[in-house]
Prior knowledge:
Number of strands: 5
Helix content: 25-40%
Largest sheet: 5 strands, parallel
Distance between the termini: 24 Å
CATH superfamily: Thiamin diphosphate (ThDP)-binding fold, Pyr/PP domains
Amino acid sequence: METQVSELRQIAKEIRRKSLEIIHRAGSGHPGGSLSAADIMTALYFGVMRYDSKNPKDPGRDRFVMSKGHATGVFYSVLSRAGYFADEDLVSYRRIDSKLNLSGHPHPKTPGVEIATGSLGQGLSVAHGIALGARLENSDYKVYVLLGDGELQEGQVWEAAMSASKFNTNNLIAIVDFNKVAQDNITKDLKDLEPLEDKWRSFGWDVHRIDGHDMDQVWKALTLPLDDKKPRVIIADTIKGKGVSFMEGKTSWHGVAPSDEDYEKALKELE
């Protein structure tokens, strides 16, 4: 396992670099939330999830829903490395003529994307519906959904949380990228989410809290045996802009592409 975790750490670093590369080239995007989610996304796609990138609609595949849909920098970088499309296709990121529809928010026209997201707060509802579909089909696939902490302030998230508990949807795994910084403020000053573990637990979920940048913890949380009945939530404490000192914890790097100078500084820090 140690070898695999070490490899995942290296992949996560490369994913961070690729995310910044495509955002910088496009001149727009969301670097902060892409960098905070890189370790989680790496562990999911290169260590945990079951899928065939050459057969994206394989009925037995695990499903992933990127509820925090603005983080396409990291999402497309991961999908490309996983083999859903070529690295050179990333040149068309956020371009209107992109043949793979590599837009600023995910769209199912893009290989590897299950559902359009970006209207925040809706991903958990969709993921729960997909998880219920697995039960109806007598299939054993799992459904993973990555939530931003800002969108947890949307009421629909908690409606979905109640429903998943009600129907014992134990093949649903939610991961909260708890970087504590929203678009223009820290989440605590918008609506304080704490005590977050207690909230999810009171809604009937199997709750785990980890350091979302400690790959050992990420790996262990994602590979734990599922609860017999409860859906699972992994609250991952992360840092917005992780890995780049001048981006870390800053609202100003929510949706701004780095300049040439900042990009070069960031790449040096990620070496």
